Amino acid sequence: MITLRHVTKSFGSFIAVDDLSLDVKPGELFGFLGPNGAGKTTTIKMMAGLYSPTSGTISINGYDVQKHPIEAKMIIGYIPDQPFLYEKLTGREFLYFSAGLYKISHDIATTRINEFVDIFEIGTWIDQRTEYYSQGMRQRIVIVSALLHHPRALIIDEPMVGLDPRSAHIVKEVFRQKTQEGITVFMSTHSLPVVEELCTRIGIIKEGKMIFLDTALVFDAMKRKGDGKFESLFLELTK
Amino acid sequence: MKLILHIAVFKFRSLFKILFQWSVPAVVKNITSVLVFGAFAYSAYYFTRTSVDYLLDTAKLGSFLLHRFLSMILFVYFLSINVGNMIVSYATLYRSSEVQYYLTKPISHGQLFILKFFDNFFYSSTAFFLIAIAVVLGYGSHFNVHWTYYIQVMVFMLIPFMLIAGCLAVIFLLLIMQFSAYISAKKIIIILLLLYIVSLYVYFSLTSPLKLVAAVLQHYPQLDQYFGYLDPPVTKYLPNYWIAESLYWHMQGNASYAASFNVLLLIATIFIFSLMMFIGKSFFYRSWNTSLNMQNRTSLFIQHLRWFSLTKPPLLPPQVSVLLRKEIAQFIREPSQWIHLAIISLLTLTFLASISHIDLKQNMPFLQTVSYMVVLLFNAFLVASIALRFVFPSISVEGPEFWSVLSAPVRRKKILFMKFSLWFIPVVILSELLVIFSHMSLMAYPSLVIVASLIMLGTAYALVGLNLGAGGYFSDYRERNPIRVASSQSATITFLLSIVYLTIMVSLTFVPLNGFFSFILRNVPFDAGFLYAATTLFLALSVVIGSGGALVAMKSLSRDFS
């Protein structure tokens, strides 16, 4: 369960996120949409503990990210918008590194890493330094690193960037499976077809404020009232 | 040319925007910069003026000797600029993502080379230039020279002199990179390093300041005459000699003869600059490609060292183990880190070997204290340099990848403690080794060894903390190159702060140490408690500085990470 209460984030006089309140329930796949500069990444970075909110609270399964950061982070799996990896480490080393940060024992980490390497079809790239990786391969490693500790909440910023259609399909399947396991997935993306395909609830943010928040079914009904296209409704709402 | 100017304009614009941004760290950095640089420049001015006054008016050593000393200082200055430019130019020419960007644009390799050369030259020589200006002002004020002469010195002497040093550095680097396709880069670097050590040794053997002073003093009291016949012929081909001669003859009132040395310097500058341009145009792109292969070769070699591998079962708790192994892996696999460490280790070993043979025992208490303090200060200075080079960039080098640690359930205290310990342990070991090796001739005085050991312990703690704190406060996660981080404006400020701290060390310990030596050599009554009290005070100050630095680093880790 992800809860945001009156969350505001300012950078000087610029308000990036303005009094945002939200609940995302277990098993829900929440699509977080908005135009560029709307405040999506800022919100996600606050949820992941990289930014501190100027005011308001964020809690994950009851743990306040500011007051109990360790407990909250222990159950979060964060996938950033840009898959930066330590370039001098191999993919496998980076995954062991991530596992260690979440205090996963070496044996369990080995089993899980091998399992995910197969699922995400990383192959022999796993033992190459990440500096030689393509964007898509980096993205796969970052996604695996976020899943290693079996998080209760996945916080994802643009998961499909650089992924080939096959990898994108695998990722979508994994997310679907995770929601079936009762895991909360909070996903920000610009890919409207992905939202349409996966999300059970949708939020649209513009200039830091939530301008739409409802189920995918309601969104679908609204869409049908227009020309039936997701894109048209999104453009209309964010105009 | 138009294209280079176009790019230069945008580079200057971005530089000005960076310099005049209104964030708290930027304003603090700029104000501290002005204060510290101002104080340092004034000290350099004052020191030069006082030294020139003393040598000419009090010691009456004569203008010839003064300018020969100046020539020797300029030689060391030349080598410092040269080495500084070479180290930074590796980062600028071969490791910068900007080069990759420009290689995709319709810019010739020659244009790109010249652009990056000046980028590197301004970056690595500005601090040297500012110090030189202060020194020139101090020197000129003794002779009451006209203000236009200062401009003349800057334009016709200082800039060409520095340009020669910078051009030679880049020529050597291009040759290293070019030859590294055939011989390993490590061998070339070792050869080059030995060449530098040999050239320093040969220069000071030939010029031998002590012999020169003795030869000139034979003519006492007629010291104010020209003793050019004492100069070894080979030194007459060096740019530092030309500057010293130009200054000497100008001060003697023979401006036209002085100008002939300036012309010589300008011709040499044009020649070396053209040579560098020719080599750059011919080899830069080729050597840039070679540098990519070199990185691959190094990585293959380093991969054999598996003991720090993250894939092995941990010996320590998981978080500590992975953080530690990650730090080591990152360090060892980054060529600019281990090459620098290798060079510094070699120099340190040479220093330790030579310092162990120095007999510090003197007969005069004051002279004994001065020579002892010089050695102690030199040890501390070495520690300060190492801390600046490796500890200061240790937070910035985490880079944008740091999200993976900051978003994980790891306490910031633990991250900081790891970083601090990882550097404090080797630095303190080095500090204590310096104490042992430099006290070989003073082992009969255990209390002195203990005091020095405590002083160096405090120094190591304070300097690691200070550099970690300043490195965190001014952290730049976008700059991937540790050398550029360690030679940035913020790093220079930190180093100057370290010098201020070392000055405090001297101020606190000089008088008690002088008392101690007076007691040993002249039996002058002395209370040892005074020495221990000063040491304790210094240790307390070191703890405050080191812990304060760690606290600032801690705060910096809690800032928003983007």
Question: Which descriptors would you attach to this protein?
Answer:
A: about 240 residues, alpha/beta, Rossmann fold, 6-stranded mixed beta sheet, 9 helices, about 40% helix, B: about 550 residues, mainly alpha, 19 helices
Question: How would you portray this structure in words?
Answer:
The complex is a heterodimer of chains A (239) and B (562). Chain A is built from nine helices and ten strands. Chain A has a domain at 2-81 and 152-237: Rossmann fold (3-Layer(aba) Sandwich). In chain A, strands 6-7-8-3-9-10 form a six-stranded mixed beta sheet, sandwiched between helices. The mean pLDDT of chain A is 93. Chain A starts with a strand and ends with a helix. With 239 residues, chain A is of the alpha/beta class. With 562 residues, chain B is mainly alpha-helical. Chain B folds into two domains: 28-294, no CATH class; 337-557, no CATH class. The two termini of chain B are 37 Å apart. Chain B is globular and about 75 Å long. Chain B has 19 helices and no strands. In chain B, helix 18 (489-522) runs antiparallel to helix 19. The interface between A and B is large, with 38 and 34 residues.
